[in-house]
């Protein structure tokens, strides 16, 4: 399809919107209401362009221009909104770059948009990263001709604990309303009243928890703001670090915003193949632990009391403590959200000292890597014909996976990609999309996903799979029929079925997958369980699993909180003084995953990079450096001494080149090398107490208007 | 050059001997400054309500070429607000050692809160004493940190080493130099 944009001829795929045609031609169109992953509605009228198309005679030939002999372009009489206009064969588009009319229309539209906007940019948290601010600067007149007083509305209206609404700043782009309807499928927000009186509100008050934070990201103005980061810093003052979230196994792309060594805000970053542009509330708001009550120096137990010490003193204390033990007695346990490099370092140290007690937690006892149809990716889930979720509480295990399933239910349309990025307006997406609940079967306990599922079956534990293979109820029969009858099917397995699952479970699942042609997506227990399972990080011959840490002769516990100590020397490596750390002999300060460089593996087997945010953590160290210190205390030469040597060793062991990954990550077929009993069950839990933000509760419910200066302004105030 | 020229030069010198001297014996005598002299910053208040003009927007810090300003904002308590509106500066610090007194902060300020005053006597002994906080710069505070320390020690009021030829400029709302 050939399209002419500002005189440049382009070859574009059919279905491209006019706005994407202009961007593809290297031009620019201002827009507020269009969003990459939302339906285009043409609400803001900023993306006006002039368009015209050739017209055909009855015999199929083009109407020709008498003067030039070329097909005559019939222009629309007025500028058109380019986000809702589809580019067609031979269409001519003029943006503000080549058309005075468009430039004037856009500047005029900007004047209307700013008509009621308060222009309190200095106090607004969006200032500096505001789409309205930028577009007003680029496309506005710079002055308004409207002299009357602006609309006054509630400037401090908390929609929930996390989201605060400023009704004066709202420009009625409807992104937030469409987001809730189209993405998490919750009809909570809507426009109330009409014209200049329009405001957004909820009916019952409050927003549903789970994915509400995303509206603060997509709001093009400062109307919806993150209440946790309220007034913590201006946008240009933050140190922005693009990294990966490791609260669950999805591995969403995030940007960590820090100021003065404190983590103040987390915003979503686009990754088409993982989280699109959305992250969950836990990932966005649950970062209080990264800057509060951190351990910044090692602690050593002296006369029964933990006392602050230097790393050298801590190493000496470990050495002294280990004189009562063999080096092989030291159990090594790490959290399953540790990076792949850290896992490699711990495995290497365990090999070097010959300790059989090695474990990572949380994990399951079963390896489901050898499934007949391969592992499913998140894009597979979004474009599947049917999904069967067994024993998973996605809200606790992998929230974004829930959004991808809902995307499948509304048609599974992934927006196309152009040279300028994801399509700004995908015309196939519609407002208030019809969902197809019959494509989703949920088997297990009642969760948030139930309301979207056409087939629901109550079940408990891992016999759910057996019951699905030999259905005993009408619902299970329907679920099995859905699996067998649909073309692209995905089976998603959660903690409820994977806990305590054994080899026979894998065989059963493999048999079911062969029978139905389904791909399998097992949600790993920890954020990086999939990567760590590829290493030998399970109890070896005669070793104790993490569940029996209390029986270990001596233990090194990295960022895990079992609440008990080992029989002998207990070394705890954690970012906070946890219950376990309080019992320990030596406590070494750890960095959080926001401050690490390394690689994590998400539930698809996708390698994603972690970057180091500028947080102040005193003398805290990551696991690799801590293990170097521990090996020094043990008198062993540390096999891995830094990130680079860990990556070199990982390349040797796994055949992977870490450290130079593309932004979206790469999928690698991981194979669990070692499986061992865990002796305890994993209860997935996304929000923990230390993640709870301390939200300023200064504002009482009966808010009094603040004293304003002097008399109310008469006439224009710009 | 002839004798006449030398006599002319000497004559000029002789003439100057009998004129009133331009120099002042500072600090015993006060130097006269122009009102537009850019000295230590003043954080002004709204007349009437007495609320701080500063809303903690950090634009002064963004405009500062010497990175001398640090602002931390917070939410106003509606019962006893510091400034009109929702936001106020909880922390407002200027490092006077870094400051080059260019006045860009004053130009950037959307509310006219930070204004270059006329005080300049800030010499002190420790680096930390050059960081001026809000309570050192709010209108009504006369003198620099060392001057006020000296005044507190001696029990005498702060004595400024300068005077203005007329009132301070209009932007310095509420500022009076003794």
Automatic annotation (TrEMBL), chain B:
Top-rank taxon, per record: Bacteria
Annotated signal peptide: none
Sample GO molecular function, one term: quinone binding
EC number: 7.1.1.-
Keyword annotations from UniProtKB, A to Z: 4Fe-4S, Cell membrane, Iron, Iron-sulfur, Membrane, Metal-binding, NAD, Quinone, Translocase, Ubiquinone
Membrane topology (UniProt): Peripheral membrane protein
Subunit (UniProt): NDH-1 is composed of 15 different subunits. Subunits NuoA, H, J, K, L, M, N constitute the membrane sector of the complex.
Function comment: NDH-1 shuttles electrons from NADH, via FMN and iron-sulfur (Fe-S) centers, to quinones in the respiratory chain. The immediate electron acceptor for the enzyme in this species is believed to be ubiquinone. Couples the redox reaction to proton translocation (for every two electrons transferred, four hydrogen ions are translocated across the cytoplasmic membrane), and thus conserves the redox energy in a proton gradient.
Protein name in UniProt: NADH-quinone oxidoreductase subunit I
Organism: Deinococcus marmoris
Lineage: Bacteria, Thermotogati, Deinococcota, Deinococci, Deinococcales
Designated gene of the protein: nuoI
